[in-house]
Structure formats: C-alpha cells, structure tokens
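Our platform keeps sequence and structure together, in a single record for each protein. Such a record has a labelled line for the sequence and another for the backbone structure tokens. Nothing more is needed to write down the fold, since each code stands for a local backbone conformation. For reference, a complete record is included directly beneath this paragraph:
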Amino acid sequence: MPPKQPARITPAVSTLVVLAALLFGTVATACGGDSMPAVPKPTIAAVLEASPTPSVTPVADQAIQPSLSEVVSARPAVSASTDVVTEEDLLNTTHPLEGTLAPELIGLESWIGSEPVTIASLQGQIILIDFWTYSCINCIRTLPFILEWQEKYEPLGLRIIGVHTPEFDFEKDAENVRAAVDRFGIDYPVALDNDAETWDAFGVTAWPAKYLIDAEGVIRYAEVGEGGYVAMEQTIRHWFRQAGIDVSSVPFKPEDYHLDPEIDRAGRVGDRELARTREIYAGYRKNLPFHRFPPPRPWVLYEEFYEGLDTDVAFEDVPEHENQRLYIQGLWHVGPESLAHARATEGFEDYLAIKFNAKTVNAVLGHDGGDPYRVRITLDGKPLSPDDADTDVQFDNLGNSYLDVDESRMYRLIRTVEFEQHELQLSSNSDRFELFTFTFGAYENLEDN
C-alpha cells in the first residue's frame, strides 16, 4: 500500500501505546471498554453535531478506568434533527486509511455463510466491512444498524462482510461463532480472523470498526466504536450516487433515524464513585500493565492476584467496595483472560462482586462443554426482582435469581429503568464457573442498552 501502515496494535494491544492514548484522552465507545466518548477531532460528521460531546475525566482522577483496546479515533455524536452532510464534508477524511485502496482480506481461518470472498472479487460494488467479536456488547449493539443497512441497500449492490476477530480464546472456535451468527440473525458472509491478520492490515484498534469501500476499492469512511450511524448511512448513499446508482427510492430521513447512542447524563459526572462503571476485566493480561505502571489502578487490587498468576489463589473480600473494581472471595484460578472458580462448594460461599453505576449489566462467562452450570445472582444482597432482571436471568420456585451457563458468551443480567448504583454478586458451587468481563450500559435512547 502506498501510505505507511499504522503501528501494529493487535487485540492484545501494547501497554505503552495504551497508556499514551489514555494520557491524551483518545477513547471511544468500543470493546473493550463501553466508554463515554472523548472530545474528538473534527470529522466528516462534525457538521451534524448538535451538542458538545462530554469530555473524559482526567486520568489522575481515575474516574474512567482503562481498557487496553480503546486506542481509537472517536467521532462526534450525530444529531438526527439537522441537515445531511455536504459532498465536501464527505470528502474531508481523517482516518489514516481513508482515501487509500483497501487492503485485501488475508490470513482468514474460515468463512461462515459464504465461500471465501476477496475485495478484488467485489470490485465495482460498495462494500461495508464490520470488524466485530461476538461477546462484545458494543458490537452487539451495532449489529441491528448493519442488518438494517443490508435490508435497505443490498438490493442496490451493497456487500457486507463481517470480519470476526476474537478478543478471547473461546471466540476462536468456529462453532461458537456460528452459533452467535445464528443467534443474531446474521446472513451476510462472516470471516474468522483468528490471527488478526486482516485486523492488522486495516489498522483496527478496537471493536467494532466499520470500513466503507467505494466501487473503485477505495476506503471512503471508517468508524471505530459505536455511533456514527447517521453519518455512515449518508456516506453509503453518497458513494452509491457517485457510482451512478439512484438511491432516491430508499427511504432515509435523519429526523426519523435511530439516535446515535447518548450516555445518560447521570453517568457523566467526574466523581469516580458516581460515574458510569466501565468494562471490568477479570484476567491478569488486562490488569497487569496497570498494576505495574499506575495510574490509573487496575480493576483487581489484590496483591495475591499478581503474585499467583496461572495458579489457584485464596482471596478474601473486603468490607467496603469501590466503583470500577472487582472483589473476590474464595479459591480462584488466576488466568490471563479470566478468573475461574477453583473448587466445588456447597453453600455458594465463593463469589465475585462489584459495585456499579449503570442501567444494564452484562457478564462474559465461560463454558467448557458438557452440562450447564448454575450461577446465583444477588443485587444488594437479595435475589433480583423480575423488573430488574434481564433476558438471561431465571428464577426458581423460592424466588432465587440465577443463570444456567451452557455456552461461552455474554449473558444479560441487569436492566433497570433509571441509572442506579448497586452491589452485584455472582456465585456458583461449580468448579467450572469462569468470568472474563463485566460490561455496562447507560444510554438514554437505545433499546438495546
């Protein structure tokens, strides 16, 4: 490729690059992190911005906890009540690859729903590439928009390719990805990029990332993280027109469009204890850099966690919990990606706990095959109420709330109407219980919060 490629930032992105990015506030709403967007540089969608994007709290305050995959260029939120962008704005590129020939899809493990596809084979068509991974809440929240674009523009020649680049090892399993593709109703081609070769070729830094390629094979728009949906559809329509394809029959009114996600204002405060909780990682791979090079501090604060990497460690919970932290009780295996319960128990005495501020809470849990295992859920020391329980929660005849974990994926736990603070605890008697991460939502106008 003629331009210099961006520095290699893989899903296990380097610590020094991440710390530098955090110091300069370059974070977006992306996995992992699900974070409040920083004030971005001007982009092609900037003319649509109706109100300032909230700024990130200074690192020293530690109100915002880090995510190693958040080295991204954020774009501003788009208002659905203003005019569409002009042609001049659409050509005002900012992403390093915008305006360059798209690299080829390389190093792919296999394909779901299609024979292998290449960029060259689709020359003459408009292409949208979505980099995603199936346990990422930000990717999940983006999929309905992509499926809507497929329905509206595929008849005109839009070709969508999902490039599945895993964050966790269990996401490399083709059967796991195939089950997720079926669960989300995806019927466009999905490629398994298990070694992140296509990810690197496109300079991707976080999930999800969307790249629009015109009929001549040139990258015309790149969006990292959630949001930018209005601007992306406007750009799709523009490059169809540039290719001589009439889109006037396809309805598009920005004022009727789904609003770009907006963080609930209650979660925008600078006080770390009151701010929206960020994605919390359980494994040492994401925690260790911030233990070695604070600030900010890692999600797990126990010294024995860092002294017992890849071993079983006995933990003791502490009386007072802080927002943005993970608390541990009992015997657990400290792994690179997860904490795994290291013994069978009888009375749910071992548990993982968090104090959080959010509307919704999700957990990525592991399953090693065989029968499901049960995880008990309590909120503020009590079973969930049906009103607060999200779709994966069940109740027994005594009113206890629980999950039956039957596959490795993201499970939906909590859904409240208001932005609230609570204490959540997950416990299981099974020695197969495994936690990778907690994610949170606090959007004002988004059904899949």
Remarks:
- DSSP finds eight helices and 17 strands in the chain.
